[in-house]
C-alpha cells in the first residue's frame, strides 16, 4: 500500500478522556500535515512536520493537542481531556519537497466525543 | 479567517453538460491553487492545480481558470459524468506552503 494510512478510522470517546491518532505517510514524503474537518467546512490546518521537525502550529491547536513525528516517519496526534467541540474528522496528508504538487490525504479518523 | 471561499454549497447539473465550480480568495500572497475531490468516507484527492503565473490549466475534462485581478478561480468539468458527483474543495497556498481550503461545493451530476 503506497497511500497515507490513518488509524483508527473511527473513535468514540467520553468527554475528558485522552485519544491518540496515528498517521503513516507515503514513505518517500518528508512533509506531513494534520488537518481537521468539521461538517460543512473544508479542512482546517492544524500543524505540519518536515521530517521530524514540527515547523508550524495553527492557533486551532490548543494546549490540549500535541503532535509528534519521531524519526521523521509516522506521526501521532494526541488530544488530552477531550471536549465535545473536538468531534471532527482528523485528516493527515503528506507531500514530497515543497508539496506544491498537491498533498496526498489519508482517509481520516472520525472522532466523536460523547 | 476565511481566506478561501466557496459560496455555493451545492451544484446540480445534467450528465453531459458543463459543471462550473467557483472559488474566491482574499490573500494576495497565495500563488498556487488546487482543486480536490472528496467522496464520502475517503480523504480528499488531488484533482488539478494552477500556478499564479498561468491563467488556465487543462487536464482532460477538467480545466481550471485563474483570474488574479479578481482573486477568483473556477473549475470547469465538461462533459460532466455521474461519477463526478462528489464534494469539491478549492485550496490555495503561499510560498510557505500553508494550504487553506474552502468549505467545499457538493456537485451532483444527474444521469
Topology:
The complex is a heterodimer of chains A (114) and B (111).
Chain A: E1 5-7, E2 10-13, E3 19-24, E4 31-37, E5 44-50, E6 53-57, E7 65-68, E8 75-79, E9 88-95, E10 104-105, E11 109-113
Parallel strand pairs in A: 2-11
Antiparallel strand pairs in A: 1-3, 3-8, 4-5, 4-9, 5-6, 7-8, 9-10, 9-11
Chain B: E1 4-5, E2 10-14, E3 19-25, E4 32-38, E5 45-51, E6 56-59, E7 62-67, E8 72-77, E9 86-93, E10 99-101, E11 105-110
Parallel strand pairs in B: 2-11
Antiparallel strand pairs in B: 1-3, 3-8, 4-5, 4-9, 6-7, 7-8, 9-10, 9-11
Walkthrough of the structure:
The complex is a heterodimer of chains A (about 110) and B (about 110). Chain A is an all-beta fold. By secondary structure, chain B is an all-beta fold. Chain B is built from no helices and 11 strands. The model of chain B has no long low-confidence stretch (mean pLDDT about 95). The chains are: A mainly beta (about 110), B mainly beta (about 110). The interface between A and B is medium-sized, with 24 and 25 residues.
Secondary-structure element series of chain B: EEEEEEEEEEE
Number-wise, the strands of chain B total 11
What is the 3D shape of chain A? globular
End-to-end Cα distance of chain A, whole Å, is: 33 Å
Structural descriptors:
heterodimer, A: 114 residues, mainly beta, 7-stranded mixed sheet, 4-stranded antiparallel sheet, 0% helix, globular, B: 111 residues, 6-stranded mixed sheet, 5-stranded antiparallel sheet
Describe this structure in a few short sentences.
Helix content of chain A is 0%, strand content 49%.
Amino acid at each position: 500500500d503506497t497511500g497515507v494510512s490513518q488509524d483508527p478510522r473511527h473513535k468514540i470517546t467520553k468527554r475528558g478522556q485522552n485519544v491518540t491518532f496515528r498517521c503513516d505517510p507515503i514513505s518517500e514524503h518528508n512533509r506531513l500535515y494534520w488537518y481537521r474537518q468539521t461538517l460543512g467546512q473544508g479542512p482546517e490546518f492544524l500543524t505540519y512536520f518536515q521530517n521530524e521537525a514540527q515547523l508550524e502550529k495553527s492557533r486551532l491547536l490548543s494546549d490540549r493537542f500535541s503532535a509528534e513525528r519521531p524519526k521523521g516517519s509516522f506521526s501521532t496526534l494526541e488530544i488530552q481531556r477531550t471536549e465535545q467541540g473536538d468531534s471532527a474528522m482528523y485528516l493527515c496528508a503528506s507531500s514530497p519537497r515543497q508539496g506544491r504538487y498537491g498533498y496526498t490525504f489519508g482517509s481520516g479518523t472520525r472522532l466523536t466525543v460523547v | 479567517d476565511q481566506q478561501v471561499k466557496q459560496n455555493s454549497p451545492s451544484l446540480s447539473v445534467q450528465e453531459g453538460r458543463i459543471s462550473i465550480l467557483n472559488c474566491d480568495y482574499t490573500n494576495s500572497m497565495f500563488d498556487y491553487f488546487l482543486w480536490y475531490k472528496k467522496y464520502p468516507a475517503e480523504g480528499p484527492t488531488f484533482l488539478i492545480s494552477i500556478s499564479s503565473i498561468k491563467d488556465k490549466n487543462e487536464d482532460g475534462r477538467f480545466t481550471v481558470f485563474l483570474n488574479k485581478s479578481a482573486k477568483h478561480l473556477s473549475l470547469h468539468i465538461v462533459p460532466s459524468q455521474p461519477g463526478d458527483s462528489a464534494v469539491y474543495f478549492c485550496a490555495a497556498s503561499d510560498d510557505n506552503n500553508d494550504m487553506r481550503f474552502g468549505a467545499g461545493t457538493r456537485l451532483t451530476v444527474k444521469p
